[in-house]
Design goal:
- By secondary structure, this protein is α/β, with parallel strands linked by helices.
- It has two domains: 115 residues, Enolase-like, N-terminal domain (Enolase-like, domain 1); 221 residues, Alpha-Beta Barrel (TIM Barrel).
- Helices cover 38% and strands 22% of the residues.
- It has 13 helices and 15 strands.
- Strands 5-6-7-8-9-10-11-12 form an eight-stranded parallel β-sheet.
- β8, α8 and β9 form a beta-alpha-beta unit.
- The radius of gyration is 20 Å and the shape is globular.
- The two termini are 15 Å apart.
- Keywords: Isomerase, Magnesium, Metal-binding.
- Pfam families: MR_MLE_C (PF13378), MR_MLE_N (PF02746).
- InterPro entries: DgoD-like (IPR034593), Enolase-like_C_sf (IPR036849), Enolase-like_N (IPR029017), Enolase_C-like (IPR029065), Mandelate_racemase_C (IPR013342), Mandelate_racemase_N_dom (IPR013341).
- It comes from Cognatishimia activa.
Length: 367
C-alpha cells in the first residue's frame, strides 16, 4: 500500500460561546485544517489540527506550507510504517509539531483501516469502556460561570476547568473559583486555568484565597519554574499544560515538583506517535493525564478519545469532546457525551467519516 494523494481543507470552527482567557487571549472563530491521504488500495486516512491563536508556536496559515514541504517525503510511502515515516519527517523538518500532528493522525487512521482495527487497540489496547470529561468554563462574571457549572453538572459532568485572568483581577478570580465550587458542591474536580497568562504574585494571591477549598491550579505562569513557585506558595496541586510539550519538559516539571497532572495534547507533541511515548513517561513519573488536543472538531476528538481509552485508568484524569464546543461538526458520526462521559468511536481506524459536502473544495491537492 502506498500513499498516492494528499488533500487539505480549511474549515472555520465557531465556538458556541466566546472563550475569554488570561493575557487578552480569546477563542471564537478559528481555522482548523483537515487532511486526507489516499492510497493505491482505495483506503483514505484522515487527520485534523487546529492551532488556536496565542497558544502554540504555530499558526493555522502555516499548516498548508508545512504539509507542502513534507509531501515529497510522504507520497509513495507505506503508511503501515508510521514510526519510520514520522522519524524521517522529524529529521527532514525540525519542529512544526502541529503540522506533523495532522500527518501522524492520518497515518494512524490508515494503519487502523488497513488492519481493520480501531485505533485504541493499536495504541495499547482498550483499558476502559468510556472516559470522564471535563467542562471548560469561559472567564466571565463569577455568577455566570457558576450557572454554566451547574448546567454542566446536571448533564453528568464532574470535572470543571475554570478559566481565569481575563480581567487581571486576582480577587475576581478567587470569587470565580469559590462560586463554581459552591455550585457543584464537594467532590467534583475544580481547577483554575490561567493558560500561562498570570504572574506569580497574582496567581499566588488567588491560590491562597482558595487554599481552604479543594482546588487545583493549571499552568498559572509561562515558565515551569514560576508554576512550581506558585505551587509551593499555595500548597495546591498543579496541572501543567502549555509548559509540557516533549520528554524534557515533562522531566523538568517533575524535577520542580509541579507535575501532579498534565495535558498531553496532540498538536503540542506532534501526533499520536509522540503522545504514546509521552504517556509512557508520564505514567512512569506518576502524574495524571488529560488526553486531548488544542482545539478542533470530530477528527481530532476521535484521535484523542482512542488515546484516552488506551491509557491506564488510574492515570487518566479526563479527556475532552472538543467537537461539542464548536460548529459545524466535521463528521456527523462523531461521538457525543453521555452522562458526563464519552466513548471512542467504533470501527476501523479513527472510526469517523467526514462530511465531504461540508468540507467543500480542498485548498491543496498534491499527488
Amino acid at each position: 500500500m502506498k500513499i498516492t494523494k494528499i488533500s487539505l481543507w480549511s474549515v472555520d470552527l465557531t465556538s458556541h460561546e466566546t472563550y475569554y482567557m488570561a493575557d487578552g487571549k480569546t477563542c471564537d472563530t478559528v481555522e482548523s485544517h483537515v487532511i486526507c491521504f489516499e492510497t493505491d488500495t482505495g483506503l483514505r486516512g484522515w487527520g485534523e489540527v487546529c492551532p488556536i491563536p496565542h497558544y502554540l508556536p504555530a499558526f493555522a496559515k502555516g499548516i498548508p506550507s508545512a504539509v507542502t514541504e513534507m509531501a515529497p517525503r510522504i507520497l509513495g510511502r507505506d503508511p503501515m510504517g508510521v514510526d519510520a515515516l514520522m522519524r524521517d519527517l522529524d529529521a527532514f523538518l525540525i519542529g512544526h509539531e502541529a503540522a506533523k500532528s495532522i500527518v501522524d493522525i492520518a497515518l494512524w487512521d490508515l494503519f487502523g483501516k488497513a488492519v481493520d482495527q480501531p485505533l485504541y487497540l493499536l495504541l495499547g489496547g482498550r483499558m476502559q469502556r468510556d472516559m470522564p470529561l471535563y467542562h471548560s468554563i469561559t472567564c466571565i462574571a463569577p455568577d455566570e460561570m457558576a450557572r454554566i457549572a451547574r448546567e454542566a453538572y446536571d448533564t453528568g459532568i464532574r470535572q470543571f476547568q475554570v478559566k481565569l485572568g481575563a480581567d487581571a483581577n486576582w480577587e475576581a478570580d478567587a470569587e470565580r473559583l469559590i462560586k463554581v465550587r459552591e455550585a457543584v458542591g464537594s467532590g467534583p474536580l475544580v481547577y483554575g486555568d490561567w493558560n500561562c497568562g498570570g504572574t506569580k504574585l497574582h496567581t499566588t494571591r488567588t491560590g491562597r484565597a482558595v487554599a481552604h477549598l479543594d482546588i487545583m491550579l493549571e499552568q498559572p505562569c509561562k515558565t515551569l519554574e514560576d508554576c512550581a513557585a506558585v505551587r509551593q506558595a499555595t500548597g495546591l496541586p498543579m496541572k501543567i499544560d502549555e509548559g509540557a510539550y516533549d520528554m524534557a519538559t515533562l522531566l523538568r516539571a517533575r524535577e520542580l515538583g509541579c507535575l501532579d497532572a498534565v495535558a498531553l495534547k496532540l498538536s503540542k507533541f506532534g501526533g499520536l506517535s509522540a503522545m504514546k511515548r509521552a504517556r509512557d513517561l508520564t505514567v512512569h513519573l506518576g502524574a495524571e493525564i488529560c488526553a486531548e488536543c488544542t482545539w478542533g472538531s470530530d477528527i481530532v476528538t476521535a484521535a484523542s478519545l482512542h488515546f484516552a481509552a488506551s491509557t491506564p485508568p488510574d492515570f487518566l484524569l479526563n479527556t475532552c469532546d472538543l467537537s461539542s464546543y464548536v460548529g459545524p461538526r466535521v463528521a456527523p458520526d462523531g461521538p457525543v457525551r453521555k452522562d458526563g462521559r464519552i466513548a471512542p468511536p467504533e470501527g476501523a481506524g479513527l472510526g469517523v467519516t467526514p462530511d465531504m459536502d461540508m468540507l467543500g473544495a480542498p485548498i491543496l491537492e498534491i499527488s
